[in-house]
Design brief:
It contains twelve helices and 13 strands. The chain is an alpha/beta fold. The chain folds into two domains: 183 residues; 140 residues, no CATH class. The strands form four sheets. Strands 2-1-4-7 form a four-stranded parallel β-sheet, with helices on both faces.
């Protein structure tokens, strides 16, 4: 991973990182449509409207990939996705899709997507990249060279970042996208089942936030205490100075910064758990020189995130730990909370079960979810 800026010493870097966190909190909160800076970075969960539901999610299946077909059909049944929301495409199961081929596929998808749809789920693992963009950002925004960069440069900010909208397409003309990614059927089925099991489960879990010795990839650690100040009301928070977590059975959140993470086989992730590692190529799901983000799902997490091209260590290009925790604990779906936590997501791919919602807590939300499941087949 390349550094976004030179760092002269550990102490200097820590001070700079803390300063950057404060400035980022203030600056990005002004951009967000939600609330002032103190609220955007952790004043506590706020009541939310019912989140994106099965009638508002379109499922895209690659008919050229037998695993995609099987995963898509199972997900349709488990989440009661309306048949009108099932979109079929044909594309090569290769890591990278060309911009021209993507344009062909996207044209077909947009022509067939019902107007009510606010988000997409992709029932495949490859392709995970479109030219220089992640496949999830390409489906969310459309392919746009402005989202590409060479070297350590910023990319455009997402209008969805830390916003309170529950209709991203209706309000922002973009559809957040997540991949139901897995190497095989057993892992795919387990992922989907975990997501469904998470709903309204109110897990008594722990958020493990690791401050590692890898200081190029540890740039989020300065924000961990912000998450800790309010999240203890709902989950336990453990901020650990360590490169590895082992032998824990209550993992709900796990955020770290390393090229590879040891000890995953000793952990038990609760249904709905979110976990990721800040590194350059975690989003290269197959054949990465670093640990693939798929390793988190295979260990039992329900969602993860990784970048598909060199992002440098800009914190804005990775999930904000305070924001994803605050929004998830406030009752948003996994796809909403995770997407809203990344200020500049064009280089990153979101993988997991998008509709998982462990902290939906109101009778209104339950009635809404029940009604959506009774929609047309």
């Amino acid at each position: 991973m390349k550094r976004a800026a030179p760092w002269r010493s550990h102490a200097t870097r820590r001070i700079a990182c803390i300063t950057f966190g404060v400035l980022l909190a203030a600056g990005l909160a002004l951009h967000a449509t939600s609330a002032p800076a103190d609220e955007a970075w952790g004043a506590g969960p706020r009541p939310v409207l019912p989140g994106i539901n099965a009638r508002e999610l379109a499922l895209i299946i690659n008919d050229a990939d037998p695993l995609s077909v099987r995963v898509g059909e199972y997900y349709r049944l488990r989440r009661h996705i309306p048949r009108a929301n099932i979109l079929h495409v044909r594309l090569a199961a290769a890591p990278v899709l060309s911009a021209a081929e993507f344009a062909r596929v996207k044209e077909v998808v947009e022509a067939r997507t019902p107007a009510r749809v606010q988000a997409y789920a992709l029932a495949w693992t490859e392709p995970y990249r479109v030219a220089c963009m992640s496949v999830t950002s390409a489906f969310a925004y459309g392919f746009d060279p402005r989202f590409c960069t060479v070297g350590c440069r910023r990319t455009p900010m997402s209008p969805y970042f830390d916003s309170d909208t529950r209709r991203p397409f209706g309000d922002l003309h973009m559809r957040p996208t997540m991949m139901l990614a897995a190497r095989d059927w057993a892992h795919a089925k387990a992922l989907i089942d975990r997501g469904v099991a998470a709903d309204e489960s109110f897990p008594l879990g722990t958020a493990y936030l690791l401050d590692t010795d890898d200081k190029q990839r540890d740039v989020r650690a300065a924000t961990f205490t912000t998450a800790d100040r309010w999240a203890n009301a709902r989950v336990r928070v453990r901020i650990l100075s360590s490169d590895a977590l082992r032998d824990r059975s209550d993992v709900l959140f796990y955020f770290t910064g390393l090229t590879r993470v040891a000890g995953l086989d000793t952990l038990h992730f609760l249904p709905g758990a979110i976990a990721d590692h800040l590194t350059s190529f975690g989003g290269e799901l197959i054949g990465s020189t670093q640990m693939s983000s798929l390793a988190w799902l295979e260990a039992g997490a329900t969602a993860s995130y990784g970048t598909v091209v060199e992002p440098c260590n800009f914190p804005q290009k990775f999930p904000s730990v305070p924001i994803v925790m605050r929004r998830y604990l406030a009752g948003e779906t996994l796809i909403e909370a995770y997407w809203k936590s990344v200020a500049e997501p064009s280089q990153g791919v979101f993988i997991g079960e998008p509709l998982a919602r462990p902290f939906a807590r109101s009778a209104e939300a339950r009635r809404f979810a029940a009604a959506s499941a009774q929609g047309p087949p």
